[in-house]
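Sat 14:20. Reprocessing the chain from the morning session after the first attempt stalled halfway. Input below, unchanged.
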Amino acid sequence: MSVITPPTRQAALVLFSGGQDSTTCLAWALQHFPRVETIGFDYGQRHRVELDARLVVLREIKTQFPQWANKLGEDHLLDVNVLGQVSDTSLTRDVAFKMEATGLPNTFVPGRNLLFLTLAAALAYRRGTDVLVTGVCETDFSGYPDCRDDTMKAMQLALSLGMDKRLLIETPLMWIDKAQTWGLAQDLGGESLIHIITEHTHTCYLGDREHRHDWGYGCGTCPACELRAKGWQKWQLSAHT
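Finished this time. Tokens:
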């Protein structure tokens, strides 16, 4: 796993969906910043249960990690349903998951991360925060162009120029795979954080909270579940060898 240099700035705003990746990023931010706030987005996603999961995860982190509780500040939830209105994807429409002629999966919501980062930067400006933390990843990014490192660097430059303020976009998961993400979570918060992730975070694109697996809840067959399950299995195998 690559070494991530701890940032020196004083506050961070975490793009927090309530899933495995953003929860790991939240723990990472709480480990490194004196003050951390969170932001989530309601864009008409099929798996809206993640919006409920966000609140549960935040509550559990405050309860299980008293050393982080005082650092964790306000949570913000923005209504961006307009994104669902312009996105004909399997995350915003009741259609089957498939690959498109473009070579991208139809789970790709065009402009989603670009919009999220822009709104997060606007909020960060108002809140006096100059660091955004997001769980995008080039290793397990399913081909999404808005998860690439080059995209993040371009957004960092554009947002800094457009707001006339130096903004930093931190991407702790950019160069690690899902198994290493499980490992990072354990390094940050031990078994308590692993328990929160498996029991309370939500990843499944279908919003399934009925079927329990070793890695957490989900349908087990959608792309998000398959990626999470494979990462869990690889992490478990490496932990016992």
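The longest strand covers residues 35-42.
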